[in-house]
Amino acid sequence: GAMRRATSIRTKLVLLLATPLIALVVLAGLGVRWTSDAASRSRDTVRGTEVALASTRAALEVARERGLAAAVIANPTGSYGQELRFQRGQADVALDQLAAAVAGADGVDVDGGVVDEVVAALVEARARIEGGQATIDTGLTDYSAVVHTLLSTGETGVAAIEDADLRATASSYTALTHLTDAIALQQSLLVAAYSAGHLDGGGRDRAIAAVALEDTWRTQFEQGASTEALAGYEQASRSPSVAATDRLRSEVLAPGPGASVPDDGDLWFTSTTRKVDLLAALADDVGSDMRSTAEARGSSAERSRVLLLVLGAAALALIAILATLLHRLVVRPIRA
User: Fold this and answer.
1) Which residue of 71, 85, 130, 336 pairs with 80 in a disulfide if CB–CB is 3.0 to 4.6 A?
2) Is the dihedral of CA 221, 227, 229, 235 positive or negative?
3) Which residues contact 196 (CB under 8 A, 6 or more apart)?
4) Is the pTM of this model over 0.90?
């Protein structure tokens, strides 16, 4: 009878004292699961952002090559040939960096063969230019297809961002990259016009459409951009190069198709290059901020997970210690 009473008393006391600890173990387990999921989401966000950044950088380098290629096609004996060769090297470096980002993008639904596809398309486009087989239209079409593929790859990286707080920033980042490409496309179209000495109707229509795209993407960027990003855009817009770009563009588009264009090709190219560089740097800052935020949240979630694991283990240890103490302090005297 004494033994049964001792067992009953021990069981009741253990349950009474251990219940809060058991609850702590359960809550710690749930917390570990939640923080593990949060850390995993943050890792996916970091990888997706890295793919997006690398894709955007590659897209803009190819867009710069597109502008120079258009100038060379329009005027093969002009001064842009050496710059085009240099820019091809810059684009190749950016594509190598993209290949490394894609290779490390576990958890991101990105096509592993996209870089090979882009490189093959670039090789063909470059060969047609070198062989004198490319026209301005076919050259712009070839390069624009590559840029589109790269920007689409960047959007795949952005789609991997599951953090609700970062989605608005990610959306503004995507809009900013397309906005920058719209400006680079205007550069390509009009640098060809400057090199040729006139702007035909088709080129003018495409340039006007690119201006409209710039306005559309700017609106979408402003809708989701942070205060800091909007301030950065406003600061970039006040650059003298931006003002020169807008003025030169108006001077070329205003007269109508077929009109001769002034001899401002070098100023147009350097001004638009500066404008593209400013916005590309802003996009890079926005993307880097997303990555840094995701890394910080992932680190915080990992620290919380470790802390909860320690708390859970401590609670289990306390339960074992309580059971031992109760046995020694309560059960043994009763048996005695």
Assistant:
1) 71
2) positive
3) 74, 75
4) no
